[in-house]
Write a structure and sequence with these properties.
- By secondary structure, the protein is α+β, with helices and mostly antiparallel strands.
- 73% of the residues lie in helices and 9% in strands.
- It has eleven helices and seven strands.
- The protein has a five-stranded mixed β-sheet with strand order 2-4-5-7-6. It has a two-stranded antiparallel ribbon with strand order 1-3.
- The longest helix has 86 residues.
- It is elongated and about 155 Å long.
């Protein structure tokens, strides 16, 4: 080795050491910088996570307010519709939670939040809505159902409740947007954090290989899971198809059974009506053969009552639920039968007025018999010795509930009570009225004639 080469070797080694030193310092600085960046980004991620968690909590609180408000309104409507006190506990709990949930929502917002003031301004409408619902419930508990229902349907109150819901939905949407923005920021910070970590690693290739090998394993596992999932899905779909077919078959069977039962019930009512009509015809034959006026009168009265019962059974048409019927349609048909079958009804004009009402089928027949007795008594006593007149049959609502009235412009009566009040028909009317918790009331009309009204507080009214 020459002297020049010998002198150049230490210089080359010094330059190599310098480059290694510079590389070490650069790697160290890169590592320190990466560590600082990791710490800063990690804190930023934690902050974004806390903010996202707080936004999620506030969004859930807003949803709780909406759910509690909807539950309170649903319980209120259910109470007004069904008049069942069992719904009051649900309403009370939901109404109390509305205020608590709203206060928690407002308290959870920072003072500098842009959403705080709009929610603070919403406190008064929320309180007004709670007060309105409480007032509606108090009216219903006091028995003032019509006022309660009218107040529940007040457009102003509904608009205020809709405004509250709109504001809360706006707040939830804003929180969702903020949550999404923080999620994007967090994702961005995580990517920067990953870049910093990768820049600090000297063995990036090894890390890439490890990641690649792990990805291959995960891909193989994912393929296996996907195949198992496909198999499970096919099995589940097969079960769903079988269950759907079974459910359809059961539904079709139930529909057939329901149709059969409905036909049987209608046929039973018709057969009962026909049998009673046969009895009425036999009584008519007996009337023709009887020589006694008293016996004929008694048989004719019995014939009329049996015919009224037969008419009630024949005219009964059940609703889809097989338990209720339309009172107006049923009573109108019964009155038409009475008008066409009573001996002296052709010279009497019938006027009917029935409030739209759904009643239980159990009470419909009894109500039809009661109408038959009142109409028969009016035809028998009100128009004796007169050429004709008018008979009004009404089923209406008043402040005390449902009321049945039969009015005429006939002879009227003198004294405290009409003579017909002491007969068998009047006794039957009393007994039938008491089945509905009422009593017949007799009065003289201002224009002449008699008015008989029966309150029906225990009449079974359908939904």
């Amino acid at each position: 080795m020459t002297q020049a080469a010998t002198e150049a070797a230490p210089a080359a080694r010094a330059r190599t050491r310098g480059r290694r030193k510079l590389a070490f310092i650069g790697a160290l600085l890169l590592l320190v910088g990466a560590a600082v960046a990791v710490i800063v980004l990690a804190r930023g991620i934690d902050g974004e996570g806390d903010a996202a968690g707080h936004a999620h909590v506030q969004r859930e609180r807003a949803r709780e307010v909406l759910l509690d408000l909807a539950s309170a309104e649903a319980a209120q409507r259910a109470f007004l519709l069904h008049r069942d006190p069992a719904f009051l506990s649900s309403w009370s709990a939901s109404a109390e939670r509305v205020g608590a949930s709203f206060d928690a929502l407002v308290a959870g917002l920072p003072g500098q939040s842009e959403f705080r003031q709009p929610l603070v301004d919403l406190a008064a409408p929320v309180a007004d809505t709670q007060q309105a619902m409480s007032e509606t419930i108090r009216l219903a508990e006091a028995g003032r159902w019509a006022e309660a229902i009218a107040r529940a349907g007040n457009q102003g109150l509904r608009a205020e409740a809709d405004a509250i819901r709109a504001a809360l939905f706006s707040f939830i949407n804003a929180q969702d947007a903020a949550f999404a923005a923080r999620g994007e920021a967090e994702t961005r910070n995580r990517m920067l954090l990953l870049v910093g970590i990768l820049g600090a690693l000297a063995a990036a290739g090894l890390l890439a290989w490890v990641i690649f090998a792990r990805s291959q394993r995960q891909l193989a596992e994912l393929i296996g899971l996907r195949n198992r999932l496909r198999s499970e899905n096919e099995t589940l779909e097969d079960r769903v198809r079988r269950r759907t077919a079974e459910a359809e078959e059961a539904r079709a069977h139930a529909e057939r059974e329901r149709s059969r039962v409905e036909t049987l019930l209608q046929d039973t009512n018709h057969r009962i009506g026909n049998s009673l009509a046969t009895v009425s015809s036999l009584l008519a034959l007996q009337v023709g053969r009887s020589q006694s006026d008293d016996v004929r009168a008694a048989l004719e009265a019995a014939q009329g009552r049996i015919h009224a019962i037969a008419s009630a059974h024949r005219r009964l048409r059940l609703s889809d639920d097989m338990e209720t019927t339309s009172a107006g349609e049923f009573l109108h048909a019964v009155v038409e039968d009475l008008h066409s079958t009573q001996s002296n009804s052709s010279r009497v004009r019938f006027v009917t007025e029935f409030v739209p009402l759904v009643i239980s089928a159990r009470d419909a027949t009894t109500l039809g018999i009661l109408v038959g007795e009142l109409v028969t008594n009016a035809l028998k006593h009100a128009f004796a010795g007169r050429e004709g007149g008018t008979l009004w049959v009404c089923l209406r609502r008043d402040e005390n509930g449902i009321e049945l009235c039969v009015d005429d412009d006939g002879n009227g009566y003198t004294g405290d009570r009409p003579r017909s009040d002491t007969g068998l028909g009047a006794m039957i009317v009393k007994q039938l009225a008491r089945q509905f918790g009422g009593e017949p009331r007799y009065a003289i009309r201002e224009d002449g004639g008699t008015s008989v009204c029966v309150s029906l507080p225990e009449l079974g009214i359908g939904p």
